């Protein structure tokens, strides 16, 4: 029975390194901007919520891959949509700054950059969770403790 536990532990440790997908691949926004890729539909890039962003890689070591849930209203269609994905945030921006300020900044950028003559995007709710990596370490620690 202990042999199976050992193989399970090895598999859990190796899988994140074998599947190195970039955080920007699951982003809600166009490359290097806050313009939404899709502004007229519900869409999920992160199917497992916070866990979807835990093992994704970032381009720089000083960045963190965070889970983002965005609820917005598209005034052209008079509809409210919810999208979930991952977003890279610089670690320096997270320390020493009130997290609500970061969320407010994102809301301003999204509201300002997603307007044109036909549609105006208005952020209704935005949540960002950057503790994804720590959840993975806690889970592995608990598994080791149980072995």
Question: How would you describe the overall organization of this protein?
Answer:
- This protein is of the alpha+beta class.
- The chain has one domain (2-146).
- Helices cover 35% and strands 24% of the residues.
- The chain is built from four helices and four strands, in the order αβββααβα.
- The chain has a four-stranded mixed beta sheet with strand order 1-3-2-4.
- A hairpin with a 4-residue loop joins β2 and β3.
- The protein is elongated and about 60 Å long.
Topology:
Blueprint: H1 2-18, E1 43-44, E2 63-74, E3 79-90, H2 91-94, H3 99-113, E4 121-129, H4 132-146
Parallel strand pairs: 1-3
Antiparallel strand pairs: 2-3, 2-4
Keywords, separated by commas or semicolons:
147 residues; alpha+beta; four-stranded mixed β-sheet; 4 strands
Brief description of this entry?
The protein is an alpha+beta fold and 147 residues long. Helix content is 35%, strand content 24%.
């Amino acid at each position: 029975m202990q042999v199976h536990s050992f193989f399970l532990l090895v598999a859990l440790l190796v899988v994140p390194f074998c599947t190195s997908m970039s955080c920007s691949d699951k982003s809600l926004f166009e490359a290097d901007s806050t313009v939404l890729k899709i502004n007229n539909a519900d869409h999920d890039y992160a199917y497992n919520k916070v866990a979807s962003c835990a093992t994704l890689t970032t381009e720089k070591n000083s960045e963190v891959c965070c889970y983002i849930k965005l609820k917005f209203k598209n005034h052209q269609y008079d509809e409210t949509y919810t999208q979930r994905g991952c977003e890279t945030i610089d670690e320096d921006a997270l320390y020493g700054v009130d997290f609500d300020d970061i969320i407010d900044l994102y809301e301003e950028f999204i509201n300002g950059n997603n307007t044109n003559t036909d549609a105006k995007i208005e952020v209704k709710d935005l949540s960002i969770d950057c503790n994804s990596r720590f959840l993975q370490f806690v889970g592995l620690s608990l598994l080791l403790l149980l072995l």
